[in-house]
Amino acid sequence: MKTKLYILYILTFFTLSSAVAQEDKVTFSVKLSKEKLGLNERLKVEFTTNKQGDNFVAPNFNGFTVLMGPATSISRSWNNGKRKFSLSYSYILQPTTKGSITIDPAKITIDDQEYKSDAKTITVTDAVVNPNAPPSANDIAQENLHLVAEISKPNPYLNEAITVVYKMYVSPSIEVSGFQAVDNPKYNNFWSQDIPVKRYTTKDDTYKGEEYRSVILKRVVLYPQKTGKLTLEPLSLDVGVQVPTQRRDFFGGPIYAQANLRVSAGNRYINVKPLPEEGKPASFTGAVGDFNFLVTTSKTHLNASESLQAKVEINGKGNLKLFDIPTLNLPGSLEVYDPEHDEKVTTSYTGMEGKISDSYTIVPEYRGKYPIPSIAFSYFNPKTKKYHTLNSEELVINVVEGPTNTEDTAAKNANATTKQVVETKGKQFNFIKTQTTLKPISNTYFFKSTAYYLWLLLPILLIPIAILLGRKREAMASDVVGNKVRKANKLARKYLSAAKKTLGKKEAFYVALEKALHNYLKAKLKIETSDFSKDKITDLLNQKGIEQSTIDGFISLLKNCEMARYSPFSNVQMQQDYNKASEVISQMDKQL
């Protein structure tokens, strides 16, 4: 009998231990609504854990557009005296490409230990056709919104300017609520210059023969630097669209549904033609466009040892920043400094326009006449499809007064194109003086000097300064309100530091901002705010005596964090929310 009791006790002990161990075991799993879906279908992904956790980090969801989420759900129940807890984070996704797409693991911290869910692979097929199903808001938006890259010239010459204009065409039946660039083209093998669009202006237009409204989003001027077939990377945007539904409001107006659409201008190709070899002059250095060429001097008559400037200038329209200016061939007996380069070029909708120049400083040493030979500048004009050569006028520098070179300077400089050794004549140097006028320096001592008395009086001068600093420090210590303000501002910066680092990245910023707000309440009130709804948080803050305006600001920030996951938010809105969060945390800390 006793043996049977012992066996019963042992079995009961192991059963209870197994139940406790099973209850205490942490699980973190992922559940999919389907593992195979069409390109136009939606997928629900749910991450679930059986214990309260912090710092949930979702995967990147590469290959999907996040339509909604994360939506947080908490459930508690008791079954036969056993407590059951479930915390879940769910997302609604839509695939952006076909094929096998892997959803990476999510992460969560439970009891200071990090847990990961399993990775899942989804198979995305062609769009599923369901003739009985009404078109979704995304389907309607996709049919009525188009992003197009319009190219001014698809077959340019090498270094010829072309303009790419990115336009968004929108049907009158839908409304765009906002957009954000996802992928900006890099323009490899092109010299590029953005032409800023200062204001988005909508105008009536046509697209494929139908009435549309269009708006220019981006303009860029390109100069191809390589021949052959070049690829323009696409511009991609996330666009928020309001689509009318079949329902009507109280006044008979249509009720709109929100759709989030990713559109792309698609790859475009440009066939760049090489410049013709026939008729290419030897003086051609790569200039393409329509130019004027001029060589001038600041003066033609001067004395020896005086200076003048000789300027080589090219003006007109074309690739002004992408070729070399011809160099001057100056007589060797002239002292010439390296040229100073100057550019006054503006890039407009049609390309570069302005002037570039090299300015030489010249100093003659001897009297005489110095010719500046004519130089040539060649360029290719895409309109005439021909090379053109411009020659400067021959100039003469007349040095009126100065020492004379014993050789025939004028004849020598007429043929010289390189620097030559000049033989000097006459009295060029002075003798070193043999007698000096040096005087002995009198002895000076530190004792009883001006510096001696200044150092002696310095401690006496520092005493009132120290007294003033001490009084100021005491005043700051007694300023209770001011110290609270400074402490609150420091606390706000501490909690919002992670959010500040992600400004400009919508999803990462609002996830970090929401964590900052919850972590602040968790630290100050010693509660798990993930267990509470916004209404419960409002009641709790009212109990703590927080002002209603501060509570409203806190709750509106939490709402913005939720809305930002499926609505477009601008960088300006993010900066405003960051500033508002800093102010709200500071005010709440002072009131607490």
From TrEMBL:
Keyword list, A-Z: Membrane, Signal, Transmembrane, Transmembrane helix
Highest taxon in the source lineage: Bacteria
Keyword Cytoplasm appears in the UniProt entry: no
Entries under InterPro entries matching the protein: BatD (IPR025738)
Matches recorded under PANTHER family: BATD (PTHR40940:SF2), PROTEIN BATD-RELATED (PTHR40940)
Protein name: Aerotolerance-related exported protein
Position of the signal peptide: 1-21
Transmembrane segments: 452-470
